[in-house]
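Loading example: each entry is read as two labelled lines plus one structure line.
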Amino acid sequence: MHRECEEKILAKIRPESEEKDQIFKIADDLVSAVDKSGIAKGMVAGSVARDTWVSGDRDLDIFMLFSPSLPREELEEKGLFLAREIALSFNGKIVEKYAEHPYINANIRGYDVDLVPCYAVSDASKIQSAVDRTPFHTRYMKEKIVSLSDDVLLLKQFSKSCGVYGSDQMTGGFAGYLCEILIAYYGGFFECINAASKWHPGIVIDIEKHQAKEFDDPLVVIDPVDPKRNVAASLSATRMYEFSEYARGYLKNPSCEFFRAKKREIFLRSEFSEKINERETIFYGISFDTPGVIPDVIVPQLKKSASSVTALLERNNFAINRSGYFMGNKKSLLLFELLYDTLPVIERRQGPPVWEEENSEKFISKHLGQTFSGPYIREGKYYVEIKRRHSTAESLFNSDDFKQSGLGKHVKKSILDEYQILKNSDCWTEEFSEFLYEFITKISPLSEILLDADKKR
Amino acid sequence: MHRECEEKILAKIRPESEEKDQIFKIADDLVSAVDKSGIAKGMVAGSVARDTWVSGDRDLDIFMLFSPSLPREELEEKGLFLAREIALSFNGKIVEKYAEHPYINANIRGYDVDLVPCYAVSDASKIQSAVDRTPFHTRYMKEKIVSLSDDVLLLKQFSKSCGVYGSDQMTGGFAGYLCEILIAYYGGFFECINAASKWHPGIVIDIEKHQAKEFDDPLVVIDPVDPKRNVAASLSATRMYEFSEYARGYLKNPSCEFFRAKKREIFLRSEFSEKINERETIFYGISFDTPGVIPDVIVPQLKKSASSVTALLERNNFAINRSGYFMGNKKSLLLFELLYDTLPVIERRQGPPVWEEENSEKFISKHLGQTFSGPYIREGKYYVEIKRRHSTAESLFNSDDFKQSGLGKHVKKSILDEYQILKNSDCWTEEFSEFLYEFITKISPLSEILLDADKKR
């Protein structure tokens, strides 16, 4: 039954020969251009090299392998120069980008091409930077996956539809290479889905049986070309188990819905306002200019900031339902859904234990006569009930306590420049609307499909 | 300097010879009456036997020692019969009371006399019930304390003034026997105060160096006649450290104030209401008939109930500043000071981990389409945001959740009969007023003295 649906999907996502010919042609041309330079050897990497790209994807990775004897600085200089020259000779629109070292991204004949300089090391254990590992991945996978490319395509499409495809920090999901390893390990799409539906903490996948390091990530997938690396390190527990439940749902009811791309919802300010009224909670947003650094640096900072501010709110007795964060092109948002935003004037504070004589004396003389209650003793420690520091969430968000609350480096800098405290429907902007929709209607991928099916009935 | 003040106090609290003669006379008469029965031997116990009662105390303990060969049932029967006969022959007003077994309490010539049957065992290790231990305490202490009775008097008065005298459950303080051991161990009142001012967790006092059991009570004082018993077992950490800070305060400034009985404050409903308004918190009281069982059974139940209901409130997202409990003659009270008493309609609930397949399916199908958000996955577990069970504290207090929340046995029975939910100033009754005053103006004994001194200046 599931084969039927999978064949239908494959017919849509498997690139036709025309698409293949086109992409191989431009790939060949670029590799030749690198070879012709005489200073580096060209190599196609990524899904194009393994014949595992989903029809319509227009990403192309060209690696330029330099001699390992070249000093790092020269590699960067010569590599960038060559990449730029080649891109220009193909009339590409050029952007310089940075991972561990700089590379060139160019739009060439409608393809999104990365031209990445790296070292042609003889052995994966001798790599000097993460990109040097990629040619080994390509060589390893090319062989392993040759008869399983349809299965990889299905898994990629399935993961995309589930919302868990992509190893960037915002997604925290499955990289293309990870999908390929899973298919190689389990032996096919259906076998992989079957296994994933039973995933639980402690799963280790070690295709080469050469693990040389312990990891406490939710899923451990040892890199076949590097025994000390977990390919699934950036996979979050949330995404891992969203995938697992989605797999379980598909096994129960193998419908094409599980491969369908999600439609983006338009979410109006008035709808957001209505939802807030229904929930009776109070939303606070902290909005500020998105720092001009790559997303994989900013997103972890946003995550850290949201969790620091949540802790700060809780320390100040404001109870939170949920928090979230979003990085837009222009503005970023930290979002907090509170159960209430006003508190009584009194606040209980803990003092030293009675047996610390000096601290106790200081504490008593600081507070004596200045309290609502206390200093009093409970279980050997002093307490006082004094005027609360922040009686409203607004006061807290306006305070130095907020600004010094462990925001990430770039996030803090941008917030110190300027930030807006937004309340309830004022949190809505067009840029934030999709994020707000997902925050409010938060639902697991399988539940969403089941709910849609219910509605159609 | 401190001797001066102590002499002044002793002059007030040391019984004069007239008071002594009177009490010894009646004690002798009662002992003779026991002896004359021919079936038991009489013995004076308690502070009268050790000459350590504070002038004006009118408590008298007469023990009736029966042969250990007597079966328990017969001891109870004959003991009660003899005690009642003696009390009647002294024209006493009789009340039958229960500790581990029954005894007679009688008002005889203005004295509060306990007539307690027990076994005259040959060795403290052979006691059959706790009261059998008392004659050993009396014999042991009589010798130890003979030259230190003034010191014991000072310590008792000091503890009373500090509010920590009495080993009943409501006080959780220092028993008279414990005061005597402390004086015997440290060698005097001043030495005891000096040591107590430095108390910290882990203090063990073992006058006979024969400890045969480990305790994790705040203070461990091994009974000189029973190596497996902690005499300070009923002393709470709060009382222990209130005493310790009070001792420290006295050493710094040895004033007679430290021996002065606290004056009881009148606290009007209007004053209570004003305090609540100042604090901006919300008070809820649960009032019900005090169960007709001895305080040492009820008080721990009230304590347990207050802490169970606090946990229930917190599980339901109501934040508490403080809770308390009070046992009056007619009514008892559980008191909760809340930071707010109304919550939004939504509530987040945790579900099973995704890898528990059956539970996950049940959870999804139970909640699908019935939520504000979810079912969604976070870190491998399901969550839903659904209609809150109790949006107001009032709803919670009216619910079965409250009635089934781990109230003590007798407390629960009385509450199931009938209870009132009182809010803010309605918590006030004359019976509760003193407790409410202490709850609101909660302050450590030393802080209170320092504050009074400040005011007088």
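The longest strand of chain B covers residues 111-119.
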